[in-house]
Amino acid sequence: MAEDPNTGFKEKLKQTILTDAGRHIFVSVGDGEGTLVYTCAILSSQKPVNSSGQALDDEAIRQITSLPDDLKEGQLTLTPVTDDHFDVIADFNNKNQPADINFSCIGWYARVDSTNEQNQKVQGDEALIAITFTTNDHETLAAGSPDGLSTDVISAQLSMTIAEAANIDMTVNEVGYVTRAELNSWQTKVTADFNGKIDANEKNTTITIHGTDPVKADANRTFDLNTYTKQEIDQMVAGAGKGAGINTVQGVAPDNQGNVNLGTVFYLKTEVDQKIQAQQAKIDALTKANSDKDSQITSLNQQMTGSNNQYNDLLNRVKFLEENAMLGKRFAKADESAAESWENQHPNYIAMIEDK
Hints:
Layout: E1 17-18, H1 20-30, E2 35-44, H2 58-62, E3 72-73, E4 75-78, E5 85-93, E6 101-103, E7 105-115, E8 121-122, E9 127-133, E10 139-141, E11 153-161, E12 167-168, E13 178-179, H3 180-204, E14 206-207, E15 215-216, H4 230-238, H5 269-324, E16 327-332, H6 336-343, E17 349-354
């Protein structure tokens, strides 16, 4: 069987095959002869093949009366009988198991006990009643932990349907025998006792609220508590606050509905938001204007720097001319002495005397 995508469960065992001995036992028990006792379930290396390795058919498997080895014995549990049906469950855990166990089948064993003329129990012979082979060639029950604790378990279930007259030993350990009718009677009694205890507990249950006297449930299991319902409380507080007991709030009296209009005292949130937005718009405009002024100042600074550069250039040129240029001046012949005096003032001065 493929792995279940929802649970991850993977079937490791094939359908159980009832042996001829098992069929004989169930027929006799179904006729009311003796009491069926499930004795054990074991793991074995037996495979569904013969000595030549050829696969055995179901008929050949039914003729098997024993298994070649007993690798491990499981713990048996029988479920309660319901509608002539019950399950035998075998659990194989690896507690105190030092090594892995490879097995290929599970063998189910039982016997039929009877009662003699002296009303004494006579134990029947144990027989291999069914075989459950593994889906694969073999499965492995892993070794347990070093501390001896169980870390793995393999469970197998054998579903059975019995006849009305059949007697089954439900205790497995041979302490006593229980018929299906006795089991059903026991289940009914336990259920009635359990329901009776629940009913008694419910009748004796009380509820106390804030120190009031305990209240028990009535015949309908309903608690009548001395409390107000939500609807009653809503009705009582519906008219509260409509002008009653309230004079003014920030100097404003409530209206006939109990509401106080504080619009003349406080700004509404929307009004505050509008004022903040308007103020922010002014700040943004001033910030932009200031940015424009900064740009103008920067431009003027650049212009002044250019003018200063031009002025310095002209000044340097004037100084250069003063120091290097030849300067001539005309004088009349009668002013020759003045011309000579002027020319001596600077090495670059040249006095020119005209003959007029």
